[in-house]
Amino acid sequence: MPDGQSVGARRLVGNFGWLAGGEVASRAVGFVIALYLARTLGAASYGAIGIALALAAFLAIGVRAGTAPAAIREVARDPGAVPDLLGRLLTLRLALAGLAIAGVAAALPWLAPTLSAPGVLILLYCLGLVPEALSVGWAYRGLERMDVVAGARVLERTVVLLALVALVGTGEQLLRVPVIEGAAALGVALWMMARLRREYPGLGLRFEPASWRPLLAEGLPVGLTMGLRMLYTNG
Questions:
Q1: Is the dihedral of CA 120, 157, 195, 133 positive or negative?
Q2: Whole-angstrom Cα distance, residue 12 to residue 212?
């Protein structure tokens, strides 16, 4: 009978393999998506997508607010903490996503000409902050279920690629791109949530602003660090 050390080693290697394989596969599909959009949309439209995506990526850091590492740690220590953490964490992230989207919508008259991108495109990509807020990948990481994390990422990218090939054929269909990406991300987020609910039947959102403070106190320095790293890496 294998001892605990050998089981732990196999689990570590398996999780590493799932994450590495998922990352390689999702990036490969993402590269194909980039090539397809660049050839289909043209330089101007593809550049506008890049700008809108960059803005949404920076805002997503604020939506996550650096809370994932602490949540992963707590779930790893006590898997039974998932319902409580999810109830508090997702409402916090949804509130932050709502503030970010409202801020972008209010600033569109200035943002669109400044970034040289269509305002509707920017707003549609920022609506993708909602599935970002609903993501429960942190829970599966804490549970050491990296197969679900990797599979969800590859599934999302694959669905996006197939939908783009089927529905986007010219630059005039530019606005379909963020709709497809947002719908795929939302679908995968809801699928992961439903799967997690089967394991934790009591899952549900809890609007308790008083419980957000400790989450933000630990998470904001992490989020700031991630934002600075992205700014340094991507400009």
A1: negative
A2: 32
Helix (H) or strand (E) holding 131: helix 129-134
Token representation of residue 227: 């934002």
Q: Tell me if 148 sits within 8 A of 187, measured CB to CB.
A: no
Within 13 A of 167's CA, how many CA atoms are on the CB side?
14
Cβ within 8 Å of residue 60, ≥6 positions away: 129, 132
Tell me the Cα Rg of the chain.
19
HSE, CB side, 13 Å, CA atoms: give it for residue 35: 6
Q: Please, are residues 58 and 209 in contact by the beta-carbon 8 Å criterion?
A: no
CA–CA dist 168, 166 (Å, integer): 6
Greatest Cα pair distance in the chain: 67
Query: Mean pLDDT, 10 residues at a time, over the chain (235 residues)?
Result: 59 79 90 92 90 91 88 90 89 94 95 91 94 92 89 94 91 89 95 91 80 82 79 67
From start to end of 126-200, where are the E strands?
A: none
